[in-house]
Every structure is written in structure tokens, then in C-alpha cells.
Design goal:
Blueprint lengths: L11 H28 L5 H24 L12 H25 L7 H36 L4 E6 L3 H12 L5 E7 L9 E2 L2 E2 L7 H8 L3 E4 L6 H10 L6 E4 L4 H4 L4 H4 L1 E2 L26 E5 L4 H12 L4 E6 L2 H14 L4 E6 L5 H11 L3 E4 L6 H5 L2 H21 L4 E7 L8 H19 L3 E7 L1 E2 L6 H10 L4 E3 L5 E2 L1 E2 L1 H14 L4 E4 L5 E2 H11 L10 E3 L18 E6 L3 E5 L7 H13 L3 H11 L24
Parallel strand pairs: 1-2, 1-5, 5-6, 8-9, 8-11, 9-10, 11-12, 12-13, 13-18, 14-17, 15-20
Antiparallel strand pairs: 3-4, 6-7, 16-19, 18-22, 21-22
Length: 635
């Protein structure tokens, strides 16, 4: 299949000579036509005698202009506005040189001034037509053939700015797609009706429903790089009653100048629904640590742990120990890092953070400087039916890892917590809150800097709502939502980890809370994902409400009532302080560990309520023996 407009291949010399010959012919024909039009009939004998001299002077002037402005090196495929300006400047230059020659040589019968002007207009117009005509003809022919091709997608481009015009131009040059571009929509009403690249600006973004119905649209191409998530959600809402596909340009216009816009198009994803700025951790964000220090990440095979490892290696840290109980995930991750970072030392250690001898052996062998604790039991409904498991990992495992970091003199220990730890209504949230208290207790006793970073849901992480919704949509539905008003905080995994590392190496305080923005209604997320899949919510894919499950809340919080905001950093990180841990916390955790080891679920729940005073279970403990609902978690 062709990849764009092409002309027969000749050597550069042959090609240049052919273009000069055509220009000479156009010049001669234009002069003869202009003189005939001026006189309204045949040329007098005197003018015919002067014609050869005049013609030689004019053709020579025109060819000098062609050579000077390099019109003989014309690109029939990539010509644009600046090339059109070159044609005009060459014409003016040639006419000026011809007029000068006439003035200096004073031929007996020179052409009238009106002939000179008409010849300039005719020559410039025909030269431009010869140069731009093949490309325009090919473009219109390709558009016509593409419209008749089976599987052609009728598309509109959102955004008629520089990126939109560049996208249209790239699509017109390429034959490697089946998009039939019908026009643009743009919110600047002053431009409605204008033509960009041969396509009309048909209206504003709010007109998408009417245009989709009128033109039987199949595809919407969003050509506004870094479009605010609010606008993306509006577009999806406008189009929710139509079966459309969506693609977006995700990068800046400056980057598009280095690559073709068409090649950068990507499918619209749930990440585009978040009002989040890109945040990347850089080594400059760390106050002092050398890239030669050894780092340890628990839960390395999980979504958060994997991203922590990736960003640490990305900024240049050279020695990393990855710890997880998931041997297969750990093995695959190690292989990926070995290929991507062959000059780094990446070690995979299979271990359970509940196994004290194993942890102590690993810490004694590696002596990590910085410990990032991402291992956790995080599934809310599952932990409601297994409180002992939640405590063994989220409380006892955290204590074991924190003690090892203290005893083997790590410099820094970072505990990743969750918004579900604030006024918890679930076993998972209460166990994570108790983990926070343990880390704060250790910070008061140890030379190791212990800190907690608390944040909300990470979109598209393992076990989150996005992959569950995606699977349900692919199966044709129904998509299950627990409650029409349930809302959650979301951020991208790269942003969450970037901020975690920035907070960790900034040493801002014991408790840092990441700024999560406004919570998103899960029902809206479900509808937008159905729309992005090319289906109509509640028509093609049903939405069912299943009711809140054990431990779930309608709304999450990030700061507890007994915590106070100390400072806000970079509009992304809040440093918070709260009451000190209770004096008998170690003894209470010991009793909790014994109850969990004995599989005493009632005892575990009672001790959790005692240790986390604002823990309020929303369901009776009899739920422990019930089967879990088959609908997805919204965490």
C-alpha cells in the first residue's frame, strides 16, 4: 500500500532540468497570452520582431528567480505555505529583473506595462498550480478512495489549532489508515465556517451530538495535546448516546514538531479523565542520597512496588533489592529490568514480610539504606472475611520490616498508606491505620527516618475498578457499581509514585498526604469507559447497582479529624501532624499478632477497635462466614 503522494523517481539533475523547462514554457505562454489580451488581437509586425529579444530576457529572468529561490528543488509531497510564498517571491523577483533589463537595454518595441503585470499574474498562478496541483489532486483522490473503502471510519477532529492542522496534514499525506476526515469542531466561535486544510470548522464541541447524527460519525480525534480532563469528560458525555471510537494526541505541540501527529494518536484511556499534571521523580529531588546506595522495595511485584522500582532505576540508582512473595511476578520483573538496565544490580528475593528470620537474614546480607514498604493486603471486601490475614500482613508484617530497618541501621523507611486508613470502616483500612501508628512509633525510637505517605486510589492498578470494568465491558456487561453516589480519589500510578519518592527523599515529616484533587463518581467513570469502548451506556452495556459491600464507604477522606495540616509543598504534598501513638501500642500489637496467629477473628476485630479508636465497622462480624459478592471491588 502506498504511504503517501509520490512522483516518478528521476535523478536530481534530470528532475531540476524538467522543472526549469516547464517554467520556461509557462513564461513564454503567459507572455504571449498577456500580449494578445492587451491588444485584443494579433500582434503588430513591430511587436513580433521585438518578441524574441523580450522573450529571452523574460525567460532568463524567470529562470534566475527559480534558481535563486530553489523552486527547481520542489517537494511535491511536503510543500506548504512557506513554499507558496517562495513562488510569489520568485515571480516578483523575475519581473523586477526583467523590468531592469528592459530599462538598461531599451529594445525598440518593448511590451506595455500592463502586459508585464498580466504576465506576472499568469505565470505565478500557473507555476503555483503546476507545483501544488499534483498534491491536491492526489489528496482529493485519496479521500474519495478512502471513503469508498470497506471499513472506512467517518471522523471529526476536535481542535482546529496548530496540532489539529498538523494532524489533518499528516493524515492526508498517508494512506496507512482508513479515517475519512469530514471536518473540525472548535470552541472558538469566530472560526466556525473557516476552512483549515480543505476541511470546514463545523461548530463547537457542544455540537458533537448533532454532527455525529448528521454525518453518521464513527470516530472522534482529539487534537488538543494535554487537554484538561474536565474537557475530555465533557466530550464523552456529549457523545455518550453514540457508538463512537476516540483517539487523542497526548503530547505537546513542540514534541509533535519532531514526530508526525498521526503516528502519535492513541486510544482514549481512563487516565485521560483525571485532572492530573505529570509528575516525575528526579535525582535532583533527593536531598543527598548517592546513586550507589542500596535500596529495598517490599511488594515489588505489585502495581505500586513495580513502579517504585522502575522510577528508582530510571533516575540512576544502581543497586536494588526487590522483595515479594509472588515468585513469578518477581522473576518476570527482574528479567525486564535486566534487559532495560543492564548496568544496574537488580536482585529478586522471594520472602514473606511475616517471616522474621527470613527478613533479618536479608537485611543482614544486603544492609539496605532506604526501604520502601509497598507490600500489603489491600482488597477491602476480601479482608472483611479474613481479618487475621489483614493483620498478619498489614500490621505484623509492617512491624517486622520496620524493626529490621531499625536494627540493621537503614537511613530511611517509607510506608505507603491509603485514604481508607482515615476514619476506617473496613478491616483493611483499620490495619493500614495501625501500620501508620507503628511507623510513627518507630520514628520516635530510632535513628532511621520513618515516614508515612498516604494517598488514594491508583487508577488501572491491579485489583482496581478500571481493569474490572474493562473486562465487564468486553464481555458485553453488565458493569456493576456498588452505589450511584460512591466517589473515590484517583491518581495515575506514575504520579503517585513520583510524589511518594519526592516526599520520601524530601524528609518533610512523619506523615505526608498527597494532594488528590476532586473525587470521581464511580458511576461516571463506568459510563465514560463504556463510551470510550464505542458503546452506549445503559443501551449496549447495562449498569447494575449491587449495594455497598462490607467495609466500603460512599466517600473517602485524606486527613483525619485529629490531624492538622502543617504545610503544603508544590501544591502536591501536604505535611500533616496528628496525636502521638498510644504508649501501650507495642503490647497491643503483640496481643493482636497472637489473636491473628490463633485465627481468632472476633478477638482481632475487638483489638483493632481498641487500637484504632475511630474504626467503625459498617457490617456485623457474622459476614465473615458469608460468601463474597461476585461484583467487583471499587477500590
Amino acid at each position: 500500500m502506498a504511504t503517501g503522494f509520490s512522483i516518478p523517481r528521476f535523478s536530481s539533475t534530470t528532475r531540476s532540468f524538467a522543472i526549469l523547462s516547464v517554467d520556461a514554457t509557462i513564461t513564454a505562454a503567459s507572455l504571449w497570452t498577456a500580449w494578445q489580451l492587451r491588444l485584443g488581437g494579433p500582434l503588430p509586425q513591430a511587436d513580433l520582431q521585438a518578441l524574441p529579444v523580450v522573450l529571452v530576457l523574460l525567460v532568463a529572468s524567470r529562470l534566475i528567480g527559480t534558481l535563486l529561490f530553489r523552486l527547481n528543488r520542489w517537494s511535491f509531497r511536503f510543500s506548504g505555505l512557506t513554499d507558496g510564498a517562495r513562488v510569489a517571491m520568485s515571480g516578483l523577483f523575475g519581473t523586477g529583473l526583467f523590468t531592469l533589463a528592459l530599462f538598461l537595454l531599451q529594445p525598440p518595441h518593448g511590451p506595455p506595462r500592463s502586459v508585464v503585470v498580466m504576465e506576472l499574474l499568469l505565470t505565478t498562478m500557473v507555476m503555483a498550480g503546476v507545483r501544488f496541483g499534483p498534491r491536491l489532486a492526489w489528496m482529493y483522490r485519496t479521500d474519495l478512495l478512502r471513503a469508498r473503502r470497506p471499513g472506512a471510519l467517518r471522523a471529526l477532529i476536535v481542535g482546529a489549532g496548530s496540532a489539529g492542522e498538523m494532524l489533518l496534514r499528516d493524515l492526508q499525506r498517508s494512506d496507512k489508515h482508513n479515517y475519512q476526515i469530514l471536518g473540525f469542531v472548535d470552541d472558538d466561535s469566530r472560526r466556525w465556517g473557516d476552512i483549515v486544510g480543505g476541511k470546514t470548522i463545523l461548530g463547537g464541541v457542544s455540537d458533537l451530538p448533532q454532527l455525529a447524527a448528521k454525518y453518521s460519525l464513527d470516530l472522534v480525534l482529539i487534537a488538543i495535546p494535554r487537554m484538561p480532563a474536565r474537557r475530555v469528560r465533557e466530550i464523552l458525555s456529549y457523545c455518550s448516546t453514540f457508538k463512537l471510537q476516540f483517539k487523542i494526541l497526548p503530547v505537546s505541540y513542540l514534541y509533535l514538531q519532531e514526530r508526525t501527529a498521526a503516528a502519535m494518536l492513541q486510544d482514549l484511556t481512563p487516565q485521560h479523565l483525571l485532572d492530573r499534571e505529570e509528575v516525575k521523580f528526579r535525582h535532583a529531588d533527593a536531598q543527598a542520597p548517592s546513586i550507589e546506595r542500596l535500596l529495598l522495595v517490599s511488594g515489588a511485584a505489585g502495581s505500586i512496588g513495580r513502579e517504585v522500582c522502575t522510577q528508582l532505576l530510571e533516575v540512576g540508582f544502581r543497586h536494588l533489592v526487590m522483595l515479594d512473595i509472588d515468585e513469578n511476578g518477581l522473576y518476570l520483573l527482574k528479567r525486564r529490568f535486566e534487559r532495560r538496565y543492564p548496568d544496574r544490580t537488580v536482585v529478586a528475593e522471594v520472602a514473606d514480610i511475616r517471616d522474621i528470620p527470613r527478613l533479618n537474614a536479608l537485611f543482614a546480607h544486603y544492609r539496605p539504606r532506604d526501604v520502601f514498604h509497598a507490600a500489603a493486603r489491600k482488597h477491602v471486601p476480601l479482608m472483611e472475611s479474613a481479618p487475621c490475614e489483614a493483620v498478619k500482613t498489614n500490621v505484623v508484617g509492617t512491624r517486622n520490616l520496620a524493626r529490621a530497618a531499625h536494627e540493621f541501621e537503614a537511613e530511611r523507611f517509607v510506608y505507603m498508606s491509603t485514604d481508607k486508613a482515615v476514619r476506617p470502616t473496613s478491616v483493611m483500612g483499620a490495619s493500614k491505620r495501625l501500620g501508620e501508628k507503628l511507623v510513627q512509633w518507630m520514628d520516635a525510637l530510632s535513628a532511621t527516618r520513618f515516614s508515612v505517605v498516604r494517598f488514594g486510589n491508583v487508577i488501572d492498578s491491579a485489583g482496581s475498578v478500571v481493569p474490572v470494568f474493562r473486562e465487564q465491558i468486553a464481555a458485553g456487561g453488565p458493569v456493576t457499581v456498588t452505589h450511584p453516589e460512591v466517589r473515590r480519589f484517583f491518581m495515575t500510578i506514575s504520579e503517585a509514585v513520583g510524589l511518594v519518592l519526592r516526599a520520601a527523599y524530601g524528609d518533610y515529616g512523619q506523615l505526608c498526604v498527597l494532594e488528590m484533587g476532586e473525587p470521581i463518581r464511580i458511576l461516571d467513570l463506568a459510563r465514560h469507559m463504556i463510551t470510550m469502548s464505542g458503546r452506549v451506556p445503559e443501551v449496549d452495556v447495562a449498569i447494575e447497582f449491587t449495594g455497598l459491600r462490607p467495609g466500603e464507604k460512599l466517600h473517602e477522606e485524606l486527613i483525619a479529624e485529629d490531624e492538622k495540616l502543617l504545610q503544603r509543598l508544590d501544591r502536591k504534598i501536604r505535611v500533616v501532624t496528628g496525636p502521638p501513638p498510644r504508649p501501650d501500642l507495642p503490647q497491643l500489637v503483640d496481643r493482636l499478632a497472637q489473636a491473628a496467629e490463633a485465627e481468632d477473628a472476633e478477638g482481632v476485630l475487638g483489638l483493632l477497635r481498641q487500637a484504632v479508636t475511630d474504626y467503625r465497622s459498617l457490617t456485623p462480624s457474622t459476614v465473615l462466614g458469608q460468601e463474597l459478592a461476585s461484583s467487583p471491588a471499587i477500590m
